[in-house]
Amino acid sequence: MTDKNILKSTILILIISAVLVFSGCGAASSNLLTVAEKEAFEDYVMSSYFILRGDDALAVSRTAWDYTVEVILPTDIATPTTATSVNYPEKGQKTVVTITKTATLNVFKVSNLTTYPNRDSINNSLEVYYILNDGDTTYDTGDEICTSDGTVDPLARESFVTTFADGTTREEKINAVLGTGITTGYAEFDINGDLTFPTPDADGIWTPPEGAAEWSSMVIYEQVEGNTYSLWSSYKNIMGVRYYTEQGSGSSLVRTAVTYERMITRDADTLSAMDNLTAFIGRLFSSDPGSNTVYTGETLTETVIRTRLSGNKKKQMETNSTVFDTGGSAIINFTASYETADDGTVISTGAPVAVYY
Hints:
It is built from four helices and 18 strands. The protein is mainly beta. Helix 1 crosses helix 2.
């Protein structure tokens, strides 16, 4: 294990140790973490924010093929087609798509491998699914996502996994899109909205307000940790939900999203609920100590991310990430604001700022 990975695997314990020494110092003591400690915290707890924010733009090669426009489909099973898109899905990222012809008529397997050249903590993200070709020779918007047998299903994914440098993995699952699980759509999410968890309803869950939308979707994700942070518990679980919606079209298109994420701890590895959406959302949003899902001292971190994209290159992000001690008290808070102008020029870099309680 490299020195950097050792640091990443111990950073949350170091944070707790620092707070035990400096608790009560207030916001003025914003430099208690070393540069290396702050970087490791960002790599781990704030990885969702950095994945969505992106990084400095990669140089675009003239040979780069933006497969988001179209990709020529392979004509035989033995010879897949590959294409590369630089600065996709976010700036500073690179995605290679591989399309393979299957034995089922008009069904092709699509593998998207995204790498993060400026993020040492994240190895890659792999999303694999099937498409049903509409009869032409290219992969484009006319080809619908399907199961391996050709049954149209926009939610179907063979895998959707992000692999981190410390060996952990994050599984994502698309649970609903407009027309499948979402009937009306989500209303636009306010970029200046609250950056704390919403109050759950009587059933212990929270649902975004409905509204007219061109497209809406909901993705849940989970990353289970082992024994690295034994000071807290034997098992940790990062779990989150990302709500996304689109309003308007063309130059007036506005795309907004809100993400709610918690890292919680248990004495046994029994947290996974990816196959039960109701249980997953109930566990994520519950604030009832008697519910045996999220109780006092179990929540270790709490993160909210808001994004807004308008036009071609204007992007805004606001995030808040709070670290709690084992007694349930907030001890460190990280905020970040990111913004680009209409031409993509960075106005605010979105570098996290730490504040100590």
